[in-house]
Amino acid sequence: MKSLISEILAPCGNWDMVKASVRAGTDAIYLGTKEFSARAYAENFTVEDVKEVVKYCHLRNVKVYVTLNTLIKQSEIHKAIDYVNRLYNIDIDALIVQDIGLAYLVNKLFPDLNLHESTQMNINNLNGALIAKELGFKRIVLARETDLEELKNIRKNCDIEIEVFIHGSLCVCQSGQCLMSSLNGDRSANRGRCAQPCRKDYKIILDNETINSKLSYLSPKDLCTIDNVEEIAKYCDSLKIEGRMKSKEYVYSIVKSYREKLDKGKYDYYLDEVKNRGFTKGLINNTNGCNYVELGRKNQIKGNTIGKVLGKGKIKFTEDVFKKDILILSNGKNTFPLTLTENYTKNSIASFKNICDALENSDVKRVSHIKIVEESAEEKNVEFDLQVKFICR
């Protein structure tokens, strides 16, 4: 069942992600092509691919937004306009744009094409929203630095659609203003080629003396707003998930979780069972400092606790687990995996020969949920509601 409030907007970097997000219950998807995308290293689509994606999604009542969210060089203007024309002719639902000059031209040449302002334009207050409306944008994608109070202010005082990031990777730099990748990696983040220098480890040096060990001081945790997404949804039109370079399992799990939270008030799919850097509630919820960055290992699957080691090679399960689920156990120094060969129910106790080194009373975590893997790849038939009228003459 579709939520009656904000749409869920899912990231798609390939066909598998398109199908997985639709199966999970998304209302809309966004994707990039091999031209002018801020995710130049994603698999991406050709324009012909997008044509097929649009057909697939529109048959299932899902909208398709296409990104053109890089800065455009003067020498590229004609090529960019030709690209927009090709997208316009395949019935996309909106174009996401960063370059303000290109936005002006698109609005003049394609007045009935919905323009969405990219988060890279760094709109984070009411004045920015009002200017975007004057420029002809139908929707603004707010910078991730915008807090909930300012979101409410924009909603109250500007008649424009609002899109807000609710989940996924974060950038340590102000949205759309990062030059760090160009400086350190000779790759422009504003041209879709971020080298991710903020994810690296750094030393802190004061007066030529190293005062701390190498850690990822600049690497933000991943945004997760599922605890208060209903409140955020009251003040925006679209809830956006980051992750065009992630997997089909990732997009299925995240979309399914937020879909169930919005529609039912609870969710059964575990966000910790897909890759993440630990979670922060983000600047939208005024979370910063040590609660915003992860200093240790990054981009790991944290896992969801599903049991306890009882000792002597036994596990007591606190959740239902399934054949082919992958679990992680600890011996106190290192972790090691265990792939299940059968199903076990909640509160059951099972013995395993190969976990005798596991630390007694330690948590057992699931890092791969076979239900997510299988459901994200499952094809379902589409039911169409056709109304036929017979006219007698």
UniProtKB/TrEMBL annotation:
Keywords: Hydrolase
EC number: 3.4.-.-
Root EC class: hydrolase
InterPro entries attached to this UniProt entry: Peptidase_U32 (IPR001539), RNA/ubiquinone_mod_enzymes (IPR051454)
Gene Ontology terms for molecular function: hydrolase activity
Highest taxon above the source species: Bacteria
A Pfam family recorded for this sequence: Peptidase_U32
Keyword Ion transport in record: no
PANTHER family in alphabetical order: 23S RRNA 5-HYDROXYCYTIDINE C2501 SYNTHASE, PEPTIDASE U32 FAMILY
UniProt name for this protein: Peptidase, U32 family
Naturally occurring in which organism (per UniProt): Finegoldia magna ATCC 53516
